[in-house]
Structures are given as C-alpha cells and as structure tokens.
User: Fold this.
Amino acid sequence: MGRTLFPGSGAGSVLALTAPLSFWGGVNPENGRVIDPRHPQSGQSIAGQVTTIPRLIGSSSSSSVMLELIRGGCAPAALLLGAADAILVVGCLAGRELGYTCPPVVEVDPMTLLALRGGDARVEAAVDRAMIISADGA
Amino acid sequence: MELTPEQHAVAAGSDARAAAMRIVAESGVLLGARRLIPIASAHIDGALYHGPSGVEFAEFLAAGDGRVAVPATLNIGSLDLIRPQNVVHTLETRALALRLMQAYEALGCAATWTCAPYQAGHRPAFGTQVAWGESNAVAFCNSVLGARTNRYGDFLDIACALSGLAPDYGLHQTGNRAACVLLVTDSVPESLKRDDSFWPVLGALIGRRYGGAVVAVDGVAPQASEDRLKALGAAAAAFGETALFHIIGATPEAPTQDQAFQGGQPEETVVLTPSDLREALSWLSTTDQPVTAVGLGSPHLSYEECVEVARRLDGRRVRLPLYLNTGRHVLQRLQAEGMEAALTNQGVALVADTCIVAAPIIRDQAGVLMTNSGKFARYAPSNIDHQSVFGGLSDCIETAVAGELRRDLSQWR
Assistant:
C-alpha cells in the first residue's frame, strides 16, 4: 500500500491537504496549523492527524519545522506523501537521534492518496512494507 | 545501500560523527541511493532559529565532538550579529538563537551567515559533488556553477558536512541533470527580457508549473546575468521544488539545446506567451493596499546590486522604510567604501547575517511589503504577516522615495 520512508505507527483522523505545501512558511511550528494563506487547508491543524500531502515544495528549512513539531507534541500522527521527499524525513531522523518518538512517513500511490479524504486511519509502517488501514474513506 | 566497512564502523559509534553517518546513510536508503559519495563542501541551513529543537540538535552534535570534515559555509541566522538592534526578539528567543548560531560555529562552519554563499567566495568547481542546503543556494549551485547537489534540508546538510559524505542519488548523477521541458521565449518581447523584473516572474512560473522537473529556457541567454539567474532560481525554488534549471547558451551544462537535454528530445516543449507571464506576475502580488515598507535582497544583495540601489537613489531620502538585506561579505565592503554611511543617512536600513522575512525586523505587526524578490513575495504573507506587492528594482526604489506605490507595468502588456 505504500513505501516506508520513516518507520513507525500512528492513528488519527485523516486530514487531506489538497495542494503542495512548504512546511517552512506553511506550518506554524508551535501548533501545527497551516498558515500559508494561499493553501486550500489554511487554518487547519496537522497536529495528531493522519495527514496526506501530494508533494512538498519550497524551503529546505522544513526539516526544522518537522523536528519542532515532534519535540512540541504537535507532529501529525502520520504523514502520507504523494512523492518521496527527504526534507521532512530528515526531521524525523534527527528527532530519533535525540530520543523522540517520531511519526511514520509513507510514500503512497496517487489512488491511495485520492481515496483518503476523511474518516479515521491507522498507519503501520515497517521498514519493508507499510499498511494504511482506513476506517472510513468517505 | 552498501556502506564500506569503515562507514559501518563509524555509524556504530556514539559520537556526533556516528549520528551524522546514521542520518546520511538512512536518508540515502529512503532516497534510493546505493552508496555514499565524498563531497567537497557543504552549505548549512540549520542555524535559523525555528524553536528549541534545532538548538537541542546542534548542541547535541557539538557536545559529541562534532567537527565538519569538509569546508562548510553557514546560511542566515535569526540575529543580525553586526547590528543587533535590527532584530526585536524576546530575550529568551535571542539567547536561544545565539546559542544555535554559536553551536554551528563550534562545529567548524564558517560564519558567512548568508543565503548567497556563492557570492561570498564559496564557488565549487564545475562537476564537483557537494551537499548544500537553502533552496535558492541549491538552485544556483547546480544551475549556474554546475556543481552537484540535491536539496539538503536542515540536519542532513550538517550530517553530510560532519561525515564528508552524501547519498548518491538525484542530481549527483549525470543522467538526472538532463532537461526534460523546453521553454521557448520567442514570443516574449526583448524589452521585457531586459527588465530585471522578468527574471523572478519566469522563476515563479518554472517553479509552480514544472515543480521538480528540469526546465531548459531558450532565447534569454544574452540577458542572463549572474544576479538575474540568482533571482530566477530563488523564485523557482520558492514557488516549486526547483533545484536545477538550464539557460541554453548561458549556464554551464547547456551550451546548446542538445547538451541541455543530453542528446535526448524534450518530453514537453512549451511556447511561453506574454499571457503566461502576466499570470505568473499576478502570483507575486497579494494585495492592492498601500505599501508600508520596501524590502530588497532575497537572496542577499550582491555588492553590485547594492551599488545599483545607491545609484538609483541618487542621494534622495526614502519616505518608506527601505530594507537592504545582504551578507557581511558585502556589508564590510560597503562600510569600507563609505557607502553604508551614505545609505544610512538617506534613511535606508541595512540588514546583514539574517533577513526581514526570516527574523522580526519590520516593527509593524502587519503591513504591505513591496519587493523585487520572488522569494520575499512568496514568504512575506505567511512569515511576517505582510501582504506582497511585486515590482522591479526601479519601481521599488521610486516607491520608497515617494512614500506610495510607483509602478510601471507597461512592459508586461
């Protein structure tokens, strides 16, 4: 169902971000809220959510925002990406060196991304394979 | 991923070098790399303060006896160390931001504090493998210098610098550097190509429309100066994830169209129209409200750009705050030549080591920032709650002097 970019497990309600996003300048590191005014999900929070993102754009400072979210307890429950990107995963790798629990990051195919639009989901990402269990794909 | 026995041994350790090796190697696995390759230099984007976690990470590396294995320059921090009064942090934030910058210096990085390291003496040779962070610097390094890097985010850049290695994937490999989209500019007026405001708009268009694809632009080489390519790359990397572009006839991997495409054919050929450009121009302005400040220098202004600002000001005082963001490599020269004093007397605010969109420098809580930078236009609304108004350098200067918007868009019709 997906390729694990960073292993782990997480569950929560699904927040589908429908446009590409830069975490730096796009997400408030203190609370996880989407602050890019041009983004369709502006004002919503990724904290604790199974968050889908078609692709990441923009500044390479986004790793720092990811680590800040992890340290502050405002990280998404899981990140499902339409295209692999090292920048957010590196935030998780740094978090692991510091001893924090970090959310799983999974690259998913376009069909899976489209199917996840709401409801709850659980992500189990092992190194060799990732499972996404959706309770309600509606 | 095949690590050498030496790399395995390093990764099994408990010091900073071990943590760096684990981060580089595991990133490499995720990115599909088969091996790690030696790098010649690094540019580090981790010293901008985003919160206590970055300080924790940098001090963790410094406490683990971390030391860069290759020459490494530093991107901006959150403080202006030369003119501390420029930045209005709380005492707590100032202390943390300073600790962050000091930790990176303790790791052996050079205190360049600029997002234009390529104009501060850090210019890797054509074909050199490097690991750079900061999206504009990555685009410039690949496209204009022809050195090879991927977009290394915070933490991975310093991990590469500490280990002296990078994962062998993406733009490190020759085949991935071929253009796949050809942008033809025959129907764009030459007068527009000669206007400095054309370049960030073209960059925004490339970034937003073509994302990570390598784009080659034909028909703009005669006008492609280094500072214009800098502006293009910064806008492209702010509006998309552009890490490499080619300007046929100007950039080093594209002396000809055939070389830009490495002998292949374009997957897509697009004839750029004035209407495409007008649409991209519209992305760079988010309001019609009155301008409250003018900001230049993202990426940091070169010495030549500062001279051009002074020439256009021609001794006049500004009515609106005018911020010139540059690096200490330029500021020191401006100070030595007396130009800093002259600009200050005209009411211009010089900012070094950081910038107005990355640190709290503009005193107004909200407002409207006029800029000639695609990157400032992209990030001012979300980062500092300033809507953006885009214009060329001359329009920005005239607006600052007049105290209200002066903008000539006739060349875009």
Q: What stands out?
A: The first strand of chain A starts at residue 2 and ends at 6.
